[in-house]
């Protein structure tokens, strides 16, 4: 294998770029909807096996960047979908958006390889640990983008349950350890590789959640309503009432549930303008609390992407404003600062978009309890789910995944929602405009769902919450400390070996 690595490093740069990018794309098959985690682990193993043969820190970084570019270009391919909603105006930007997103994310991995090779040349363990650190950094820096983390490949396996102890970064650490173990089997340290793989295999069997338990009659029933409004029609005046009629019609049918939930921006009007009409919407829930997404403005004309809880008669009982906004999608970074600095004309041209909310929740659902509110993008940030001293009854996520099309994006977004439920030990009610709407139990199992691209409603019992998980108490800090300690241990060990 060492000879193979040396031969590979001696090949032309274009050959190495294409080969490693293809290998990285193969690693992306572990992400939803394919969920081929085995392919991801094998691709990582090949990368780890090739890593020591790099002839310099610069070449190490180049190799890993190419691998990362392929991985992110394949995993984040859904990023082109928003630009295809109005293809005549924005379609030309789609390939540039994908290239820049993949290239930028891959820089984190390349930096990990460069630092690892400077600290401990040719040490695959040091590189693996730095790769985990890079994923943590990617999840946090510049508002963070923890999409397609390596640890997400475990969502459909028993290992996903480990997230209750250490969150997504512990899953990433286990993915990297798996790749290192397979690389050890390919190389000379077969015993270590077998031991690590054996432990991980045992862990996956021990942690398997099994089948979901049968619901009991005392559980509240939640109605998830999915209007299926395509993004190119959602704000069209000719269709807004059509989709609103779907929501009220499906809400008013059948048994009276304990809670009715509509998706993000389900109501296509400003909350300020329809206060007197909320009774009509509430009537469709027939006395049950109604949750829906809507936009609103405050007294200073600042805009918010909001979730509201409406009770009988149309009374607004709770309001939550989205706190973690999408850069360049819901606001332009720096536009407000430009205005404060006097560049009001430029700030006005850029637009300031939505204003982040000031309070984290939870919101109260009459007859059910406290819910942690999440709006779309907020569901990917495990470390930002907070709720104070009182443990809530559920996680409540409303979203509009129509922006993501019908391919990988909605499936990957759903997979991350499943992890949030596992991490917190709480059931999640997830309602999406075009799907996938789902009831998720505290083990991440989907107990009821509406597929992509259909309109309708589904009644699902709300699973019972579990006891508070270690992750809900301590967050990412323990795993980050473990990774840092391992990095120091690997560095000092490398120093002793070189003496």
TrEMBL record:
Which InterPro entries does this entry report, sorted A to Z? Apolipo_AcylTrfase, C-N_Hydrolase, C-N_Hydrolase_sf, LNT_N
Annotated TM spans: 12-30, 36-54, 61-80, 92-115, 127-149, 169-187, 194-211, 477-494
Pathway membership: Protein modification; lipoprotein biosynthesis (N-acyl transfer)
Q: What is its EC number?
A: 2.3.1.269
Q: Which residues form the CN hydrolase domain?
A: 225-464
Could you tell me what this protein does? Catalyzes the phospholipid dependent N-acylation of the N-terminal cysteine of apolipoprotein, the last step in lipoprotein maturation.
Full protein name: Apolipoprotein N-acyltransferase
Native species of this protein? Yoonia algicola
């Amino acid at each position: 294998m060492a000879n193979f690595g040396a031969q590979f490093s001696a090949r032309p740069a274009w050959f190495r770029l294409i080969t490693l990018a293809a290998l990285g794309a193969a690693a992306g098959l572990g992400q939803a909807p394919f969920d081929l985690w085995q392919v991801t682990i094998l691709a990582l193993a090949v990368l780890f096996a090739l890593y020591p043969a790099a002839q310099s820190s610069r070449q190490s970084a180049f190799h890993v960047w190419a691998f990362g570019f392929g991985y992110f270009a394949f995993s984040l391919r859904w990023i082109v979908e928003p630009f295809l909603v109005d293809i005549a105006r924005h379609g030309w930007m789609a390939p540039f958006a994908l290239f820049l997103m993949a290239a930028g994310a891959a820089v984190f991995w390349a930096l990990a390889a460069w630092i690892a090779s400077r600290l401990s040349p040719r040490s695959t363990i040091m590189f693996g640990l730095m790769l985990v650190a890079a994923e943590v950094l990617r999840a946090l820096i510049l508002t963070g983008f923890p999409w397609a983390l390596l640890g997400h490949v475990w969502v459909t396996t028993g290992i996903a349950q480990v997230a209750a102890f250490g969150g997504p970064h512990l899953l990433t650490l286990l993915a990297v350890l798996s790749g290192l173990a397979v690389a050890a089997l390919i190389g000379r340290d077969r015993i270590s590789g077998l031991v690590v793989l054996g432990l991980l295999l045992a862990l996956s069997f021990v942690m398997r959640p099994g089948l979901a338990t049968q619901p009991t009659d005392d559980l509240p029933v939640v109605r998830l309503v999915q209007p299926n409004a395509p993004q190119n029609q959602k704000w069209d005046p000719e269709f807004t009432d059509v989709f609103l009629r779907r929501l009220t019609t499906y809400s008013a049918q059948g048994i009276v549930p304990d809670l009715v939930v509509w998706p993000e921006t389900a109501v296509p009007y400003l909350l300020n303008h329809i206060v007197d009409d909320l009774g009509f919407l509430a009537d469709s829930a027939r006395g049950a609390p109604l949750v829906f997404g809507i936009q609103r403005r405050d007294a200073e004309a600042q805009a918010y992407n909001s979730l509201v809880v409406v009770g009988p008669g149309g009374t607004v009982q709770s309001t939550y404003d989205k706190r973690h906004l999408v850069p360049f999608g819901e606001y332009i970074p720096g536009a407000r600062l430009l205005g404060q600095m006097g560049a009001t004309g430029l700030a006005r041209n850029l637009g300031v978009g939505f204003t982040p909310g000031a309070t984290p929740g939870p919101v109260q659902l009459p007859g059910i309890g406290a819910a942690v509110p999440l709006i779309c993008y907020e569901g990917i940030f495990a470390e930002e789910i907070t709720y104070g001293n009182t443990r809530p009854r559920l996680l409540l996520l409303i979203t509009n995944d129509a922006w993501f099309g019908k391919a990988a994006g909605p499936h990957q977004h759903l997979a991350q929602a499943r992890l949030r439920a596992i991490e917190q030990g709480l059931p999640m009610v997830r309602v999406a405009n075009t799907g996938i709407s789902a009831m998720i139990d505290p083990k991440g199992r989907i107990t009821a769902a509406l597929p992509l691209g259909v309109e309708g409603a589904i009644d699902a019992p709300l699973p019972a919450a579990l006891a508070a998980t270690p992750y809900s108490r301590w967050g990412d800090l323990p795993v980050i400390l473990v990774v840092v300690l391992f990095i120091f241990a690997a560095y000092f060990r490398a120093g002793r070996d070189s003496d």
